[in-house]
Structures are given as C-alpha cells and as structure tokens.
Amino acid sequence: MTYDHIQPRSKGGETTFENLCLACPSCNEFKADSTAAIDILTGETTPLFNPRTQRWSDNFTWNSDATTVEDLTIIGRATIICLRMNNPVILVARRRWTISGWHPPND
Ligand SMILES: [Zn+2]
After folding, report:
1. Residue 12: inside a domain, yes or no?
2. Is 1 a domain residue?
3. Residue 54 is part of which domain span?
4. Mean pLDDT, residues 43-52 taken together
5. CA of 104 to the centre of ligand 1 (A)
6. C-alpha of residue 76 to centroid of ligand 1, in Å
7. Confidence band for 106, pLDDT divided at 50, 70 and 90
8. 12 alpha carbon to ligand 1 midpoint, in Å?
9. Average pLDDT, stretch 67-75?
C-alpha cells in the first residue's frame, strides 16, 4: 500500500492524518492529482470518493464473485472509472485473493 494525499499537495493538500489514506499503487497512480472526474452518464464533474469523510459501503459494492467493484452512487461511478478500479490486472489479483480467503475485505 502507498500513502495518498486525498487533496493533492500540488493543490494545497497537507501531509496530515486527515488528508492521507492508504491506497494500492494502482489506484494511487491513476488518481494522480485528481480530486474529481467526469461522470460518464451525466457528464457532470463529480468529486472522487473521500475515504476520510465517506463510507465505502455507501458508494460501492462487490459483484457476486467479489472481483469487480460496482458503483452505488455517482461518486462511486466516477471514482471507479478515474482510478480504473476494475482494470484487468486487479481483477486477476482479486480472483487469486478470493481463492486464498483474503478477499473481499470486511467493511
Ligand atoms: Zn486500489
């Protein structure tokens, strides 16, 4: 896991507990300095999910075999696409983690 600045340092974010979260390297890389993304259904600029102020289970769920993250909200949808949370590499990893009993996490 890596530390992600929720509000990027390039946009004035500070290195404080409230502004840091753990993120896998893939999500962190694709998030880059984004704080919002265009929602594909509405075309609206939508804030990305904030793990410090929002609950994961309010915005996301797992599909039936727990390999794919599904959106429950516009924030979830924009975040899944921006962070490429269902890219082919992570899908293979989740399949292996599920077989090993490491996935899905308890929320
Ligand atoms: Zn990730």
Report:
1. no
2. no
3. 33-100
4. 96
5. 13
6. 13
7. confident
8. 23
9. 97
- Ligand 1 centroid to Cα of residue 80, in Å, is 10
For residue 83, report the distance from its CA to the centre of ligand 1, in Å. Answer: 7
Ligand 1 centroid to residue 30 C-alpha, Å: 9
User: What secondary structure does DSSP assign to the chain, as a single string?
Assistant: -EEEESS-GGGT--SSGGGEEEE-HHHHHHHTT-SEEE-TTT--EEEPP-TTTS-HHHHEEE-TTS-SEEESSHHHHHHHHHTTTT-HHHHHHHHHHHHHT--SPP-
Rounded mean pLDDT of 89-102? 94
pLDDT at position 107 is: 66
Domain tally, the chain: 1
Q: Does 79 map to a domain?
A: yes
Note whether residue 80 is domain-resident.
yes
- pLDDT at residue 36 in the model: 97
